[in-house]
């Protein structure tokens, strides 16, 4: 017979694991430490395995057993799934019209979606929207894990994602970003070979250079920065140059220049990504159609 796992006990387990202590977990749960210990003990009895190593009196830290380490991501997944359902049901009970979840790459999230969403919700004032912005890989993961109804991103290596559908909406050209006083700043366009004598900072979108003549630039890149805010700060400091799609370039930044890369001429496609075998909610279908109509792709 399968064990009946209680969400409260799973929360207690995750808190003890992440905070590395029963005392801190008890404070977070607003319970006594013995109560948390009993909760974890009951969960271990149900699972038939110990979740935590026997505590060393010389240290206050609590360490997971190998079984506990394997169980931790599963427990988090169960909690997230429970909370999503609970949130949906609460909205229905409050007579909301629905809950829409979507994720997007930051460039579209900041440039395109504010206007689109503001117009869309004019006719859906009771629609609850949860919005996440992250890099393309993270957006794909959220779509795969059904954390969102659909995502907006580029589809890297589309042949490896046969379980998803991609509807292209926007496209932008790859360019070089440098400080305004950089030697390349006065150029109107650039050839990739002109970048070889300058320090290149690669980022999540640099993979667009792969399979092109400019691929050698990636192997010689001294820095990799995944976070866009940090990347912009490093570029403003003059640490080096980087390649970015046009939409990702911060508009109105007086300290940086964007110069189109003409050789190779690389265009990034961004669109709607959804699971092929998953039906969309009416709200999600309506927003996708609204995006298509707004961009002339409908």
TrEMBL record:
Going by the entry's taxonomy, the superkingdom of the source organism is recorded as Bacteria
Listed GO cellular component terms? cytosol
The molecular function terms in GO held by this entry are:
DNA binding; DNA-binding transcription factor activity
What keywords would UniProt list here? DNA-binding, Transcription, Transcription regulation
Q: Where are the transmembrane segments?
A: none
Per UniProt, residues of the HTH lysR-type domain are 5-62
Family membership: Belongs to the LysR transcriptional regulatory family.
Write the protein's name: Transcriptional regulator, LysR family protein
Name the species this protein comes from.
Neptuniibacter caesariensis
């Amino acid at each position: 017979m399968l064990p009946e796992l209680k969400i409260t006990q799973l929360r207690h387990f995750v808190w003890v694991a992440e905070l590395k202590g029963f005392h801190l977990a008890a404070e977070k749960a607003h319970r006594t430490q013995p109560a948390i210990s009993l909760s974890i003990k009951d969960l271990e009895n149900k699972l038939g395995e110990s979740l935590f190593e026997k505590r060393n009196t010389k240290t206050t830290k609590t360490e997971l057993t190998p079984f506990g380490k394997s169980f931790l991501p599963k427990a988090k997944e169960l909690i997230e799934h429970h909370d999503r359902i609970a949130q949906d049901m609460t909205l229905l009970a409050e007579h909301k019209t629905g809950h829409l979840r979507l994720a997007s790459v930051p460039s579209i999230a900041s440039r395109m979606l504010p206007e689109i969403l503001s117009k869309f919700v004019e006719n859906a004032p009771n629609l609850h929207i949860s919005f996440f912005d992250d890099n393309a890989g993270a957006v794909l993961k959220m779509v795969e894990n059904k954390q969102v109804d659909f995502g907006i991103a580029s589809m890297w290596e589309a042949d490896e994602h046969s379980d998803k559908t991609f509807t292209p909406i926007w496209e932008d050209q790859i360019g070089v970003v440098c400080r305004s006083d950089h030697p390349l700043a006065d150029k109107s366009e650039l050839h990739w070979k002109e970048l070889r004598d300058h320090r290149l900072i690669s980022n999540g979108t640099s993979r667009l250079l792969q399979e092109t003549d400019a691929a050698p630039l990636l192997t010689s890149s001294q820095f990799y920065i995944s976070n866009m805010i940090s990347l912009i700060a490093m570029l403003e400091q003059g640490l080096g140059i980087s390649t970015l799609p046009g939409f990702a370039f911060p508009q109105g930044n007086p300290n940086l220049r964007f110069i189109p890369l003409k050789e190779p001429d690389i265009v990034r496609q961004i669109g709607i990504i959804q699971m092929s075998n998953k039906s969309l909610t009416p709200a999600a279908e309506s927003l996708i159609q609204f995006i298509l109509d707004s961009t002339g792709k409908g």
